[in-house]
Amino acid sequence: MEKSRKQLTNKYGNSEMLEIGKVPPQAIEIEEAILGAIIVEAKLFDDIIGIIRPESFYKESHQIIFSSIVELSEELKPIDMLTVISKLRGLGKLDEVGGSVYIAGLTQNIGSGAHVIEHARIVAEKFIRREIIRLSWEVCNYMYDESNDLFSEIVQYQKQLNETIDFTKHDEIHISDAIDNMQEYSIKLNNNEIEKGLPTGFTYFDEFSGGLQRGDLMIVAGETSNGKTTLALNILKNSAEKGVKAAIVSYEMTAFQIAARMVAQERRASSKDIIRGNIDETNLRRITGDCYRLRDSEIYITKPKGTGFDKLVIDIKRMVNLYGLDLIVIDYLQLISNNKRNGSTADSIAEIANYLKALSVELNISTILLSQLKRESNPRPTLNRLKGSGDIENAADIVMFVYWPNKYGNVSEDVNGVNCEIEENEAIISVAKGRNIGTCEFILRFEKDVPSFYNHYSNNVPFDPVNYSEPSEITPFDFH
Fold this sequence. Notes:
By secondary structure, the protein is an alpha/beta fold. It has helices at 28-40, 44-48, 60-74, 81-90, 99-106, 116-144, 150-166, 175-190, 203-209, 228-240, 255-267, 271-276, 281-289, 292-296, 309-323, 345-363, 392-395; strands spanning 5-8, 16-19, 217-222, 246-250, 299-302, 327-331, 366-372, 398-403, 412-415, 418-421, 426-434, 440-447, 452-455. Helix 10 crosses helix 11.
């Protein structure tokens, strides 16, 4: 037999799904004490406004009174019994809350104002408990209808729950404490006691930037078949072999294809031959058996079921919690669907990019998001060519472009302000945006048969004082 429920809803949107006979968490007398203390001693309002808000109060009349006090504060008007009564009268709410007599009664027997912060925390806790009850009932009712989208509701529940809890958290820090913390952190960085950044394996970029930083969103973009996925896989593999825990979310490639490309990069073999089965068993076992660094690294591969953004968020959070990930690669932005958005494609893509940036900060990871570029007559990548641009650039901490001059018949290009001859197997990697590092350009060598990018020192490009290292000497396999 279905249990009877009672839904209480007020105009502030604070609804509660309750079982008949159960009293929701509340503290009516403490709510009265808070309101009375503020009316008597207005400066107490500043002490608690970051702890509670109108909907934190259980009693609707208390919500209305506190809301009127908030409005008085925003209007820079004094807060006292007369102004509160006048405000409520002007709003047509005075009788609704019990009239002037009730307001006056709040100021009686209020006790010491020293307890108001503690009281506010109690009211805030009661509110959080009620909100969790409400959200839980809403999720339960939603789950009974199997036509609803499961993952969308889970993400919404997590978001609302976090918003409810986070309201009472405070991250303010005095500048003196911030300087002390900065000093201690910088000393540890200098002494190599903590990581300076996640290594990409590309010497120039790592020296220039200090590596990928936690909380950062990096966009790797390029035209179709220009190597953006290859570059991202290189970074993923290189960093993982240095101890970084990493994962790739691929909407285009299977785990088989990704593994083949990483093995090929490690052993300087042909991924095409591996994928097409053109290598005999003996040689293939030699290749895969020698991938000790790759096998020992912590790399996880996932191909989401569907392209929904909500499912992607859940997968990322699950993998970070399960494997303690440091780095996530997502291939690629334009293949992710955002079903919640009714606006333009650009707005939808921008919303995804902004959320992934916030998620990187929340989870303390570095995220690499691949993106296509719009085609233009001038093939050299620019920020305004990010496909569905919107706020993608604004969301990103780093925007990195892959550019092949020779592919477009250009044998010379300006690199870091110097005109250079560009060989056929050389690609220009352009950091077009670096929120905390600045911009730069460098050249990598590309081995098409693998395919893979490698560190490359070019005499044409003055990159002093960075010392480049060529790839480790691994003799390519000859299968023919």
